[in-house]
Amino acid sequence: MSRRPLIAGNWKMNGLLSDGTALAQAVAQGGKDAPCDILICPPVTLLGAVKSVLSGSAIQLGAQDCHWQEKGAHTGDISPQMLVDVGCSHVILGHSERRADHGETDSQVAQKASAAHQAGLIAVICVGETEAQRDAGDTMSVISAQLDGSVPQSATSENTVIAYEPVWAIGTGRTPTAQEANQVHAHIRAHLHGRLGDAGTAALRILYGGSMKPGNAADLLAQPDIDGGLIGGAALKAEDFLSIVAAAKA
């Protein structure tokens, strides 16, 4: 099965109104007729403004997190329904920075993903090992445990994207070889086979999310089980992000 690549930009905690809308406009202009799907995930303060900029384009809008409740006494949190209301189609969940900085557990990620599914959002669920876990040879067992704990029973290939982000490669400029990254992607696909079945695992998009940049994007995206990228730093420069978009071939 041919999976259409997805290139997602995670802006993290970057961007004010002026530069954020300018970046979105540049991506919208340069991303016309792209050989892949494009997703932009700005900070929540920019969601409305970026949605307006993207109006009329095929570029989709995503958020960087959500709560598992529809509403209530959760100061500072955003519900999946609020994200849908502002125009989001996707939400990133379980990013390693959320797991590390906010102590998010696999169980909480699964709760959030289930709530996102119920609201009609596509959940981009992140998994990945630390450097110590990698050096100990525990990469595959760590990934398997995270998948078991973080991917809810509601997950399908239509409402879920998996992002493999080796923690040791995020923002460091270090990356595994394209072949090493593909081995983990293939493991993720095989591990989810029992839950999703033949058609589901064949259709599931799995993104690479550890320092993908213009210089290594083509090699990574050429691998058979790498279906796109979750881009951090390179997503903050339109030229770099669009170079990665151009490297994705359906």
Task: Please describe what this structure looks like.
With 250 residues, the chain is an alpha/beta fold. The chain has one domain: TIM Barrel. It is 44% helix and 14% strand. It is built from eleven helices and eight strands. An eight-stranded parallel sheet has the order 7-6-5-4-3-2-1-8. Strand 1, helix 1 (17-30) and strand 2 form a beta-alpha-beta unit. Helix 5 crosses helix 7. The chain is globular.
Q: Helicity level, as a percent range?
A: 40-55%
List how many beta strands DSSP finds.
Answer: 8
Sequence of strands across the biggest β-sheet: 7-6-5-4-3-2-1-8
CA radius of gyration: 17 Å
Q: For this structure, what is the CATH class? A: Alpha Beta
Query: Quick one: overall form?
Result: globular
What is the CATH superfamily label? Aldolase class I
- List segments where confidence is low: pLDDT < 50 over at least 5 consecutive residues: none
User: Which structural class fits the helix and strand makeup?
Assistant: alpha/beta
Count of the domains: 1
Under the CATH scheme, which architecture would be assigned? Alpha-Beta Barrel
Question: Helix count, per DSSP?
Answer: 11
- Average pLDDT confidence is 96
